[in-house]
Each structure stands twice: as C-alpha cells, then as structure tokens.
Specification:
This protein is of the alpha+beta class. Helices cover about 20% and strands about 50% of the residues. It contains 3 helices and 7 strands. A 7-stranded antiparallel sheet has the order 2-1-7-6-5-4-3. Strand 5 and strand 6 form a beta hairpin. The longest helix has 12 residues. The chain is globular and about 45 Å long. The protein starts with a helix and ends in an 8-residue tail after the last strand. The relative contact order is 0.23.
C-alpha cells in the first residue's frame, strides 16, 4: 500500500501547468538593446519604444503565442517553462540564430522582458525592458 502513496503524493505536489495570461489590448514596450562584439569587446546600446497590440487569443498564454510565432517562422522551441508569473523559452532558428526569452509579470499591467539574440557573426544582443499595458482596445490587433 505504501508503494502507491509516495507516487500519489508526488503527483499532488507537482505544480499544475499554468498559462502565462496577460491583458489583451495596447501595450507599450520601452526597451534597451545592448551588445558587445565578441572579438573586439566593444559595447554599445540603443533605446527605443515599441507599441504592440496583444490579441485576446495571444493574451490567453502570451509566452506560448510568442513561441508559436517563432515556430511559424521555422524555429525550433526548446526549454519552454511556465510557472505562475514567470515564463521562458529558447528558440533555435535558421542560420544558427538563437533566441532566449524570459518574461516575468510584475503586476496585471507590467511585464519585465529579457531577450537574448545570438548569432554566428560574433555578437549577442540583449533586449531588456518593461511592457506596460496602455488600454483594453484590441481593434488594431491581428490574430
């Protein structure tokens, strides 16, 4: 009898799969893109702001929707993890281009984002910023 109790307890203790749900609508993403060339060690950075629209379908599991977009472009998704307010995955794409994405919900209207883009030309680009929900309007979103 005890040989069945431990596996059942282990199953009960395992975290349930959760989706990385966010608000649908208009988001603003102020971010910084930095890079350092591997050979020269020269570093540089630029800052920008991106306006994004998250559809209702993508909002249901934002990290999964982002991974699906990369898969549609021919990338292979690896190391997908979602646990409550944190989600991450790695994508390996054509021409040895790779992405590591990490999302952390800070609140219902704020998401910390870190993305590392690696390529074979000797440069890694790091994109860091905080997505901020602006409105619930999804009229400009594409599904």
């Amino acid at each position: 009898m005890f040989k069945y109790i431990l596996p059942v307890l282990a199953l009960l203790a395992a975290p349930l799969a959760q989706s990385f749900e966010v608000k649908a609508g208009s988001w603003q993403f102020p971010h910084r893109i930095s890079w350092q060339e591997r050979e020269s060690k020269r570093a540089d950075a630029v800052e920008g702001v991106e306006q994004m629209c998250v559809s209702r379908a993508a909002a249901a599991d934002y990290a999964k929707a982002q991974a699906a977009e990369l898969e549609a472009d021919g990338c292979r998704i690896e190391d997908r993890q979602e646990n409550g307010d944190v989600a991450s995955f790695r994508a390996v794409c054509e021409h040895q281009l790779g992405f590591q994405l990490h999302y952390q919900k800070l609140s219902d209207s704020r998401i910390q984002v870190k993305q590392i883009v690696s390529n074979t030309k000797g440069s890694d680009y790091v994109v860091e910023g905080e997505m901020q929900h602006q409105s619930d309007d999804t009229s400009q979103c594409s599904d």
